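Per-record layout

source: Clostridium estertheticum
name: ABC transporter permease
length: 410
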Amino acid sequence: MNKLVYLFLLDTKLLLKSKVFYFKLVLFPIVLVLIIGSLNSSQVTLKTFNVGYYSEDSSFKSLNLSNILRDDVFKSKDVKGVINLKSVKSYEEGKKLVSNGTYVALVYVPKNFTKNYINNSKINISVIGDNNKLDDVSIVKTILNSFDKNISIKRVEQNEVIEDMALNKSKVRAVDVNKLISNIQNTSGNSSEISKIATRKNAKPIDVMQYMLIGMVVMFSILTAFELAHSIVNDKLNNTMNRIKSTPTANFQYVFGKVIGVVFAIMVQMITVITIGGIVFRESFGNIFYILLVTAVYALTIGLIVFCAGITAKNHMEISTFATPILWGFSFLGGSLISKNNFPNNLQMIQKIIPNGKAINCYLAICEGKGIGDIYIDLVELLAIAAVFLIIALILLNKGKNNLLVKDNA
């Protein structure tokens, strides 16, 4: 144990002598936090813009979808804070107001829209937008796409109930049909089927700032870990490793003496990011103890992976060769560079397997308010990966030690 502590302190002391290490450890993360925070804070506020609305639709069987779109969707509390909806007298007037820049877009609901909806005919809503304000136009299109999807789902449900009634009248109650019709008219609500699938109660949403900071820490922890690989190569080049192997020092003491220093450095990085993000940008990362636990387990895993890379490398150039694919490959596939939610299914499966992907998933779960019970599987799998690379590291060190003994006997 004393040797383990001695090796850890010795290695940490050598690292702290390097000015570049301080830059990677603290200064660079702080600068990135400030840059990311400034970019996100400048995009938080949305300016209200004007949108024209013209409808030729009319009520059909006591239902008028164009009125629901206008009053319950565009004039709802949330949307009203961004979109200032203005009714126009004609389609041509609306086009003119968009052309001269008075309105960002014109929403046009065609004749018999509600009737076609009820009769299962094709339905569509037109949008004319200002090409110079595409971001605002995309917001209008997103709202309309959501509305269209909502009523389309309700129409499918309505058809299924009607078909069920035709096939087996005894199993369909009038109260269920009336409830379904009521849901169709209330388009601000979700589908009856979809509402059964919900996220965990009291889950906290993850904002862009949180995700970017977490992704950044996970990515640059790999860069920090490669300082370990360089220190191992230094031990080889200055014959320190051979001197250590000639002593009674066990291989696992040398491994952990090196890796614990990296674990400490990565935890300092995480604490730095949490502190700056919390003080400057008021970001919350959930239970700090859980965050540091995940950081320690992940740092141990990535440290042992990098240790193996350092043992196999003959010089610093080879370390750089290892570092590039590991850093960028893991960062991309793990979800540090691109949100994991935007990955196709096959890449999402890979993201859940690799170490930094597991770390990001654990961090996000903690930020949502989840506990150890929700992330323990990922933690156990990270420890299992660490155990595999620990065995590989010990085998490589033992092989080198045997070669040294053979050389001495010769």
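summary: The radius of gyration is 30 Å. Residues 191 and 197 are 10 Å apart (CA to CA).
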